[in-house]
Amino acid sequence: MKLTTVGLGYIGLPTSIMFAKHGVDVVGVDINQKAVDSLNSGKIHIEEPGLQEAFEEVIASGKFKATTQPEPADCFIIAVPTPNNADQFKSCDISMVMTAVESVLPLIEKGNVIIVESTIAPRTMDDFVKPLVESKGFTIGEDVFLVHCPERVLPGQIMHELIHNNRIIGGVTQNCIEAGKKVYGTFVQGEMIETDAKTAEMSKLMENTYRDVNIALANELAKVCNQLDINALDVIEMANKHPRVNLHQPGPGVGGHCLAVDPYFIIAKDPINTDIIQVGRKINNQMPHYVVNKAKEILKAVDGKKLTVFGLTYKGDVDDIRESPAFDIYEMLKDLDYEVVAYDPHVDLDFVEKDIKAAVKDSSLVLVLSDHSEFKQLTDADFEGMKDQLIFDTKNVVKSDFETTKYYNFGNLYT
Ligand code: SAJ
Fold first, then answer.
1. Which end of the chain is more exposed for a tag (fewer CB within 10 A), N or C?
2. 108 CB less than 6 Å from ligand 1?
3. 233: Cβ below 6 Å to ligand 1?
4. Which helix (H) or strand (E) holds 194?
5. Cα(259) to centroid of ligand 1, in Å?
6. Contact 148, 173 (CB under 8 A)
7. Element at 209 (helix H, strand E)
8. Are 101 and 114 in contact (CB under 8 A)?
């Protein structure tokens, strides 16, 4: 099989490499010439465990190459971004998906499969992609097979989850489902769940919305418990001992390119019936302000003017600062005229301090905003040299017992 993938980002690149590892001839296409050059010189441009090794393997075997121009293939996978539009409800901007499909249409021959993996608003395949392909004279399900197969992998575990996760195969017709299953059968060991395109679209959006709304519930619980002098983290632990309860974890907000984006795609399609989803978004968007206010209170008690932010990424063990509440908090604190140092072992930016001792020197508070593995084992010794040894761990990641350091998290903010 020959495969052309359009979009070599967080999803398109690992997916392309996975197909190539399993014997498929893959051409990876991206409009970003720098990314293409970097790949062809042997370097991947994203941090993801196991990806560089797999990449080197498929370059050596000649099964993968990167380019800016699509090439003819048996199957085309579209994995380009779908950001929010600037409208009131932040609807789904499908323009990059449509442009990507248009870019491969001149190459399409009878029997080809076109798969959209990008996250899209419900009904996008039926109402927009299908008519576009039909406008070239193709009959869907006979000449060309159209499938929405949403990506569902978790950054940090992509290489494992690509193989082992269940895959939703949303065909525009039954023949399209069969064609999609054949493609993913190359390496997927999870179940391949057959459905139509619009159910696949909505399922994907609801997965992330479920998580977003549940995190909002945990954040709300943290705020209420703080008012009432109750340890929210203990409450979560207790409640989760019930066999049908799964409270999520509070945090500094919800970031990344999925949970903070996808719920709006549903809201925009039906603003009337989406109260819970809208409130969930609002609560999570307010969390950075809540954290900043708590940090201000802690600092005020010691007349602290300098603090150190630990982690700028949207979650632990990734280098991604897109839609990161941690980064927003860092900016907000700087605007408040504190001296703010950023420390993040995963982020390579000029202003990010890499030396922990230098990062905490003369600081009055360490504000932990990402749950990087490196932060788990922090001890009193790491905080020597601070003006005040205070730490506010918004991710409940630090596991040590402190003696000289005063430790706050969402469970004991009231103390
Ligand atoms: N977070 C909390 N509390 C929690 C869990 C997460 O505050 O209890 C925060 C994280 O810190 C982060 C954000 O939520 O800021 C999102 O992180 P995540 O690990 O939940 O998810 P993503 O955005 O990295 O990946 C999600 C995954 N979706 C689900 O787990 C339902 C992934 O499977 C999807 O493929 C991905 O979105 C996507 O691309 O849509």
1. C
2. no
3. no
4. strand 192-196
5. 6
6. no
7. helix 197-228
8. yes
